[in-house]
Structure formats: structure tokens, C-alpha cells
């Protein structure tokens, strides 16, 4: 199995008792005063990995401009290549590496093993693609990936007539025995633990013989903007994909037909902007992110309304978004069900606020890279904080924090949340800052440049 340039060492957070200051810990820099920084960020993980999949299924070669290059996008590229897709690097138009030319395979071929790492987008978006390939494709990933929910992907494909072996598996590893065709049709699934179950099916559905009429039936549907992103990416490539009005917002249909080749410019990752923008609240001063899109389906755009709730002021000037910290960080009550991936930095902010907060609607983030509710509570409480786990969120009562090891749990957003706390607290040691390579390998440099007032 190819080893990604961005692989981080395997690490069991629950077994680790590394002493303070052990080799590999990253001393989170303290802010020395108010910030005045401009930061440019690499491309969106969610957009890059969707466009890679759609390009591989398209009717001709596509070009991705300024795509993300990180562990998650590397894994997606390697997986699609191993199914026969041509993916070539050409000189980049962005500041963060090569552009990509994606040439679809004449016929997708299985007989391969796909390493999903810890990438939800790889493990949920590619099994339907493997079903369209000829031959067996085995999916596996990190130890943490084997704990992430996959039952809905497996049962969906089985209901659409795809052979996934008969060993009753509900998680990685499993093998999709692709026959080169998927029947498609009507399907009802429970996507309450991840919107990626919906997106994964929709992305391939135009290539199913009957397309797909999909419904969600379950107690909640998290991360709906990510489903809107999937629909928008499909329609931009000429696919008839829409919300099924009859299903009250919890149904979608995709008509069978070609997926157009396209030249697509990938927007900067607005969710990765969260710790940088939140830094202006923690340290004071202001942080500007460049390349902020005027129109986007990225849930990170919600930071424009979320950060003012904590006391920031926000100004969009052309494509530059500036967040300026207020006198204090205010605590607040928010339902974050649409943007669970923004929870780690916002919980870190809440721990540094002047009054308590409750962040709810995010029970599903127990199934992200790690159980983020448990991890955030453990790490903040480990530094003297008071965070209580709720069934679907966290209650955060700010307390004076002290230094110590902040565990990353192989979770990029846990690592960056530790960096945010470390801006305000002496002696915070993030044990695995390298895990930010999942979506933002440049994080340590960009963070130091932000503190130095750089770009
Ligand atoms: O489709 C996507 O690109 C994503 C969907 C969301 O997943 P969940 O619905 O599992 O939260 C989000 O949290 C994740 O970071 C990326
Ligand atoms: C939940 C996340 O990732 P994944 O795409 O692996 O689900 C995330 O990036 O916050």
C-alpha cells in the first residue's frame, strides 16, 4: 500500500502518558500582544475531494486549480489512481502546490486495496465508485478509521444490488466486489451519524443505471451544508441533482447521465480558517483571511455570523475577511448541527470566555476523527477547565487554565484547538501537531507567521 507523504505516526491517545516536554511535543506559542496578520490558506478538503471524485467519473479530462495537497487529498488521489484514473500534477496557479489534471479511466478497475487513512471523505465517497469498477476493491484505514461508522454505506450499496461479501461487516475493512454497474433506484438510509453517507451516494449516482432517489430517515441529519455542496458540485457539472421537495428537505434525486469534465478553481478551506480567525478573539487585534469567496457552500462561511456571537467584529472587503477581537470573549448557547466540524475551535474559544457556553446539536462529532466531545472535555479539563459532556454537545464553564500536554487524538482540529488555547495559556504542549497534515500540512508555519504579523 503506498505511504502518503503526509502520514503521521500511529498513536493511541488513550494509552499515551508521555511526560511533559517529551520529544515531539509542540510548544504552542503564546500571543505576545494583539495580532495584525494576513493569512492565505490552501484549498478546501471537502471541495478538493468532491472534485477529484467527479473528475474521475466525468466524460473527459478535468483540471483542478489550487487544490488542497494534504494527507486526505493524497489518499483520495492514490485511491482513484489505483482504480485506473490518471491524475497528473501540472504547475500550480495557487500558492500551495501543483494543479491537477484528472483523466478518467476508460473503464474503472478494482483488484486493489484502498487506504482511507482517517479520511471520512475517502471511506464514504469511494465505495460507490468501487462498485462501478470491475473487480474487488478492499477498503481499510488507520486504527481510528475502523472505529468510524460505515454501516450505512455498506447497507446502502447492498440494497442497490452491490456485492460486499457476506460477512456482515459494519465497519472497515470490507471489500466491494464491483461488477462495473450499479442498478440505482429508490433508497432510504439513516444518515444521522454522518452527512457523508448521503454525499457519497449522490456523487456517483449519475453513473447508476437508474440514477438515485434517496431519502434520509433518522432522528437528525447533521452537516446539511455539506450535502448542499455535493448538489452544487454535481449541478455545476451538468448533472440533474436536486432536493426532493416531497421529502421535506431530507430527500435528494440524481438523474442518470454524463458528468461533465470541468476546470474548477478550489476555494480556500474556510473551516481551516476557524482557528486563525478565532485567534483574533483570544489574542486581541485582527486577522485577515485572503481569497474569501463571495458565494460558497462551505460551512466555514458561518464563521462570519458565529464569531460575532463571541464578541468579534467581522468585515468583508472584497475577498478579504477580517475578524477583530473584542474586549472580552463572551460565552454563548449555540446549536452547531449544521457545522459540527467548526466545534473544536469554538469550544476552545468558549473555554477562554468570561461566561459559560453550551454548544449543542453535535452528538455526531463523537464519530469524527475521534470522539470530539470526550476529547475536548478531557483536554480542557486536563488543563484545569470545567467542561461537561451532554448527550449532544458540551457545557463549558470557563476556569483559569494552566499548562500541560494537550493530546491531539490523531485529529487535526483537536491539534489546532490546542494551539488556540496555547495562545492564552503558558506551557501548553500539543503532542502531535503533525496530525494537522490531514488537511493543513502548513499549519505550524502559518500559525507562527500569523503571530509574527506575517502573511
Ligand atoms: O462531506 C464532507 O466533506 C464533510 C462532511 C461533514 O461530515 P459529517 O456529516 O460526518 O459531520 C464534515 O464534518 C466533514 O469534515 C467533511
Ligand atoms: C470530520 C472531519 O473530517 P472527515 O472528512 O474525515 O470526516 C473534519 O475534517 O472535521
UniProtKB/TrEMBL annotation:
Keyword Amino-acid biosynthesis in record: yes
Gene3D superfamilies noted in UniProt: Enolpyruvate transferase domain (3.65.10.10)
PROSITE patterns: EPSP_SYNTHASE_1, EPSP_SYNTHASE_2
UniProt binding sites for 3-phosphoshikimate: 45-46, 50, 194-196, 223, 341, 368
Region spans: Disordered: 1-34
Superkingdom classification of source: Bacteria
Catalytic activity from the UniProt record: 3-phosphoshikimate + phosphoenolpyruvate = 5-O-(1-carboxyvinyl)-3-phosphoshikimate + phosphate
Transmembrane segments: none
Matches recorded under InterPro entries: Enolpyruvate_Tfrase_dom, Enolpyruvate_Tfrase_sf, EPSP_synthase, EPSP_synthase_CS, RNA3'P_cycl/enolpyr_Trfase_a/b
Alphabetized Pfam families for the sequence: EPSP_synthase
Pathway: Metabolic intermediate biosynthesis; chorismate biosynthesis; chorismate from D-erythrose 4-phosphate and phosphoenolpyruvate: step 6/7
Keyword Cytoplasm found: yes
Keywords on record: Amino-acid biosynthesis, Aromatic amino acid biosynthesis, Cytoplasm, Transferase
Chain positions recorded as phosphoenolpyruvate binding sites: 45, 120, 148, 196, 372, 413, 438
Domain annotation Enolpyruvate transferase: ranges: 31-445
Residue stretches of biased makeup (Polar residues): 1-10
Protein's job: Catalyzes the transfer of the enolpyruvyl moiety of phosphoenolpyruvate (PEP) to the 5-hydroxyl of shikimate-3-phosphate (S3P) to produce enolpyruvyl shikimate-3-phosphate and inorganic phosphate.
Subunit structure: Monomer.
Entry's family note: Belongs to the EPSP synthase family.
PANTHER family: AROM/DEHYDROQUINATE SYNTHASE (PTHR21090), PENTAFUNCTIONAL AROM POLYPEPTIDE (PTHR21090:SF5)
NCBIfam families linked: aroA
Name this protein carries in UniProt: 3-phosphoshikimate 1-carboxyvinyltransferase
Amino acid at each position: 500500500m503506498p505511504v502518503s507523504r503526509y502520514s503521521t505516526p500511529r498513536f493511541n491517545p488513550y494509552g499515551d502518558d508521555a511526560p511533559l516536554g517529551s520529544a515531539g511535543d509542540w510548544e504552542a506559542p503564546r500571543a505576545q500582544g494583539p495580532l495584525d496578520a494576513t493569512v492565505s490558506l490552501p484549498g478546501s478538503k471537502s471541495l478538493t475531494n468532491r472534485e477529484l471524485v467527479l473528475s474521475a467519473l466525468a466524460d473527459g479530462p478535468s483540471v483542478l486549480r489550487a487544490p488542497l495537497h494534504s494527507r486526505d487529498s493524497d489518499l483520495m488521489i492514490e485511491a482513484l489512481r489505483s482504480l485506473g484514473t490518471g491524475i497528473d500534477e501540472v504547475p500550480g496557479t495557487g500558492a500551495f502546490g501543483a494543479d491537477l489534471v484528472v483523466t478518467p479511466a476508460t473503464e474503472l478497475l478494482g483488484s486493489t486495496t484502498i487506504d482511507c487513512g482517517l479520511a471520512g471523505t475517502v471511506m464514504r465517497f469511494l465505495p460507490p465508485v468501487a462498485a462501478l469498477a470491475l473487480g474487488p476493491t478492499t477498503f481499510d484505514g488507520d486504527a481510528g478509521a475502523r472505529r468510524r461508522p460505515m454501516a450505512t454505506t455498506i447497507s446502502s450499496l447492498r440494497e442497490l444490488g452491490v456485492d460486499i461479501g457476506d460477512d456482515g461487516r459494519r465497519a472497515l475493512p470490507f471489500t466491494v466486489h464491483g461488477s462495473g454497474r450499479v442498478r440505482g433506484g429508490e433508497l432510504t438510509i439513516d444518515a444521522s451519524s454522518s452527512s457523508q453517507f448521503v454525499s457519497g451516494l449522490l456523487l456517483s449516482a449519475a453513473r447508476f443505471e437508474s440514477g438515485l432517489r434517496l431519502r434520509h430517515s433518522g432522528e437528525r441529519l447533521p452537516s446539511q451544508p455539506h450535502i448542499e455542496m455535493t448538489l452544487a458540485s454535481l449541478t455545476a457539472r451538468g448533472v440533474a441533482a436536486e432536493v426532493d421537495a416531497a421529502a421535506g428537505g431530507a430527500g435528494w434525486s440524481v438523474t442518470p447521465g454524463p458528468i461533465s469534465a470541468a476546470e474548477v478553481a478550489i476555494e480556500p478551506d474556510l473551516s481551516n480558517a476557524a482557528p486563525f480567525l478565532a485567534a483574533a478573539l483570544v489574542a486581541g487585534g485582527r486577522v485577515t483571511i485572503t481569497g474569501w469567496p463571495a458565494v460558497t457552500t462551505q460551512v466555514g462561511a458561518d464563521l462570519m455570523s458565529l464569531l460575532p456571537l463571541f464578541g468579534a467584529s467581522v468585515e468583508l472587503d472584497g475577498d478579504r475577511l477580517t475578524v477583530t477581537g473584542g474586549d472580552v470573549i463572551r460565552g454563548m448557547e449555540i446549536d452547531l448541527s449544521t457545522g459540527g466540524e467548526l466545534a473544536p475551535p469554538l469550544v476552545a474559544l468558549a473555554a477562554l470566555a468570561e461566561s459559560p457556553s453550551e454548544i449543542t446539536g453535535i452528538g455526531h462529532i463523537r464519530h469524527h476523527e475521534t470522539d470530539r466531545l470526550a476529547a475536548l472535555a478531557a483536554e480542557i479539563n486536563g488543563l484545569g477547565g470545567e467542561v461537561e459532556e451532554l448527550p449532544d454537545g458540551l457545557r463549558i464553564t470557563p476556569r483559569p487554565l494552566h499548562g500541560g500536554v494537550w493530546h491531539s487524538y490523531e485529529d487535526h482540529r483537536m491539534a489546532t484547538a490546542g494551539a488556540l488555547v496555547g495562545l492564552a495559556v503558558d506551557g501548553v504542549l500539543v503532542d502531535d501537531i503533525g496530525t494537522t497534515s490531514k488537511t493543513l500540512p502548513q499549519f505550524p508555519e502559518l500559525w507562527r507567521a500569523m503571530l509574527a504579523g506575517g502573511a
